């Protein structure tokens, strides 16, 4: 019986004894521009990310009706919130261009869908997997919709109690499920990241890949998450943290994303297998610096 926590996503496996799967969350940082989204995809590829992630909403479903007509300043001028939400959503023609771009660049893509209608929209483009956002953890109908597709599902757990996480996991079951520890603050204070939850989730769900979706400023906590055993990590990507948008401040610019991925690969190598050994590179210093042989050394030379 295979006791590894591992699932297949596209042509990759995510889980035990696999490279950390690094996801660049484009989210809504594109501000409704296909060209900006393409630049972010190129940036994710340059940085060495394994996948990019989009978001999809049906504004009339996801925006409470009492907020529809509230006016706000946007990159397109002052408008109602419902009009702004429509500006931020790609239509089928626009999204088709992005999917084609990802396929041509050979980078995996997927999306978090905030309502069932959005799942139907994204499914037409055949993503390798889906994500449920932290805000959707208690949306049983949406979770069941995802379960019916029989595709890998990444479940984010921000702003949720342990009981809510248990209920959601029980509903979708653990086949093809990945659970991401997260705290839904943008940006998140270090003292609220609670990275040891990765260990808690790994213990509670021993056959489920556990990862981390971070919204902090800086890179160190994500590296720490990898050291704690995160099988996948997700960070928002941006061209410039000073761009307009609520998620930009908690995002990573392309050069930073490159550092993030590069150091994750070094951490993977450095963690090793936990079996103590004397390396060939140590032999010279062993002969030069060790003055007294151990009893074991003497026994082995007999």
Structural key phrases:
two-stranded antiparallel sheet, alpha/beta, eight-stranded parallel barrel, globular, 302 residues
- Main sheet record: 8 strands, parallel, barrel
**CATH C-level:** Alpha Beta
Euclidean distance between termini CA atoms: 42 Å
CATH architectural designation: Alpha-Beta Barrel
Strand order of the largest sheet: 3-4-7-8-9-10-11-12
Task: Fill in the CATH topology.
Answer: TIM Barrel
Give the topology string: H per helix, E per strand.
EEEHEHEEHHEHEHEHEHEHEEHHH
State Rg.
22 Å
**Strand residue percentage:** 15-25%
Instruction: Please tally the helical runs, counting DSSP H or I stretches of 4 or more residues.
Output: 12
Mean pLDDT: 94
Give a brief outline of the structure:
With 302 residues, this protein is α/β, with parallel strands linked by helices.
Structure description:
With 302 residues, the chain is of the alpha/beta class. It has a single domain (7-277), classed as TIM Barrel, CATH 3.20.20.70. The chain is built from twelve helices and 13 strands. The strands form three sheets. An eight-stranded parallel β-barrel has the order 3-4-7-8-9-10-11-12, surrounded by seven helices. A two-stranded antiparallel ribbon has the order 1-2. Helix 1 runs parallel beside helix 4 (92-105) and helix 9 packs parallel to helix 10. The radius of gyration is 22 Å and the shape is globular.
Topology:
Elements: E1 6-9, E2 12-15, E3 21-27, H1 34-47, E4 51-56, H2 59-62, E5 71-74, E6 77-80, H3 81-87, H4 92-105, E7 108-113, H5 116-123, E8 130-132, H6 140-149, E9 153-156, H7 162-172, E10 177-182, H8 197-204, E11 210-214, H9 220-227, E12 232-238, E13 252-253, H10 254-271, H11 283-289, H12 295-301
Parallel strand pairs: 3-4, 3-12, 4-7, 7-8, 8-9, 9-10, 10-11, 11-12, 12-13
Antiparallel strand pairs: 1-2, 5-6
Helix pairs in contact: 1-4, 1-10, 9-10
């Amino acid at each position: 019986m295979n006791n590894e926590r591992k699932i297949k996503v596209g042509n990759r496996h995510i889980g035990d004894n696999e490279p950390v799967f690094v996801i660049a969350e484009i989210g809504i940082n594109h501000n409704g521009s296909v060209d900006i989204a393409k630049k972010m995809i190129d940036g994710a590829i340059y940085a060495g990310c394994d996948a990019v992630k989009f978001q999809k909403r049906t504004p009339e479903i996801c925006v409470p009706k009492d907020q529809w007509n509230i006016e706000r300043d946007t990159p397109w001028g002052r408008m109602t919130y419902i009009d702004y939400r429509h500006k931020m959503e790609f239509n089928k023609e626009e999204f088709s261009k992005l999917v084609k771009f990802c396929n041509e660049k050979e980078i995996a893509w997927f999306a978090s869908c905030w309502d069932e209608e959005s799942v139907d929209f994204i499914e037409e483009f055949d993503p390798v997997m889906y994500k449920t956002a932290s805000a959707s953890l208690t949306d049983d109908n949406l979770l069941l919709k995802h379960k019916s597709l029989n595709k890998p599902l990444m479940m984010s757990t921000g702003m949720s109690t342990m009981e809510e996480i248990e209920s959601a996991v029980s509903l979708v079951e653990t086949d093809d499920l990945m659970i991401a520890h997260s705290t839904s603050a943008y940006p998140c204070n270090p003292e609220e990241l609670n990275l040891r939850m990765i260990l808690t989730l790994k213990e509670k769900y021993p056959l489920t890949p556990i990862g981390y979706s971070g919204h902090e400023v800086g890179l160190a906590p994500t590296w720490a998450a990898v050291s704690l055993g995160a099988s996948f990590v997700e960070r928002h990507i941006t061209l410039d943290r000073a761009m307009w948008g609520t998620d930009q401040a908690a995002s990573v610019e392309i050069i930073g994303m490159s550092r993030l991925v590069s150091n994750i690969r070094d951490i993977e190598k450095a963690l090793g297998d936990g079996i103590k050994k004397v390396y060939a590179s140590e032999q010279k210093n062993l002969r030069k610096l060790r003055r007294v042989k151990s009893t074991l050394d003497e026994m082995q030379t007999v």
